[in-house]
Amino acid sequence: MVKESLLDGAVNGLVSDAAHGFWLERNSLLIVTSCYAPSLNRWIPGLFTYSNGASALHFEHHFYALFESIAKEASNRGLEVSDTMFSDVMDFSEAERGGFIAAFTRFWRVRSDDVRSDDELAEAATKLLKGCRQHFRAGVTRVKSISGVVSPSDVSAFQRHAEALLNAPDIDTFKECANTLLAAFPKVKPWLSWWLRDAHASMLFDSQRKMEPEIWDSIPETTNAEEAMHWTLHCTRSSNIIIDYWLAVELEFAFVMGQQSHGN
User: Fold this and answer.
1) In sequence order, what are the residues at sequence separation of 6 or more whose Cβ sits closer than 8 angstroms to the Cβ of residue 113?
2) What residue spans define the domains of the chain?
3) DSSP structure class, residue 11
4) Hey, which of 22, 116, 146, 190 would disulfide with 120, CB 3.0 to 4.6 Å?
5) CA dist 181 to 27, 156, 163, 168, 186, Å?
6) Residue 33 CB coordination number (10 Å)
7) CB pairs under 8 A, 24+ apart, for 169-173?
8) Which residues is 48 bridged to in the sheet?
9) pLDDT grade, residue 260 (50/70/90)?
10) Cα(first)–Cα(last) distance of the chain, in Å?
């Protein structure tokens, strides 16, 4: 999960999501965080967590274990642990976001060489989070299908105005896009207001981001890699081959690393 330098393309950082319906207990979750393995040319799981709930505290346990694992790997490789090692793409769950921030604060508070306050650590954590744009686009699709909110003849215009929010280059342009959207489609105000909250907007829109631009561009813009893994997990669960599947992945990884260590 630790890389010494950024890879080419948006394949850096972590991608996290929780799978519902994997366990027989319907309220339990399988929380997964994945990273990209260039040796395998695929995203692979870095940490699986069984969770018997979906509160911020449940997610905190997952992320704290994740951060400690990353720190241990970095230490074993003689690398200094930095905030950016924890950059993560996730959905807009308040519990998941809150758990990440709490775990990040907890991780650094137990390290005597970090003198930041809890508020400073929480603010630093928000700069490591990027939201899944596919979730926003799915919301656009749902809203434009409601004829009482968006007239069928105006669907294309609504989608164009909504998409413009994502890549607005600066705050003034973003505000102009938002005002234009609301003027044309006033009934979407409750929906748009949710996305314009600072906690959500900073994870989604280019002009509102708190993350460093270099990091933002180097990590994925969706959680699709994790969604695909959830699908694989559900398939393997239903056919009782999950252990064999992930054992095969681990063996493939071990083979590739062995080949590299021998110069092949």
Assistant:
1) none
2) 14-128+211-261, 134-201
3) -
4) 116
5) 38, 12, 10, 13, 8
6) 24
7) 169/206, 169/207, 170/207, 171/207, 171/208, 173/207
8) 32
9) very low
10) 23
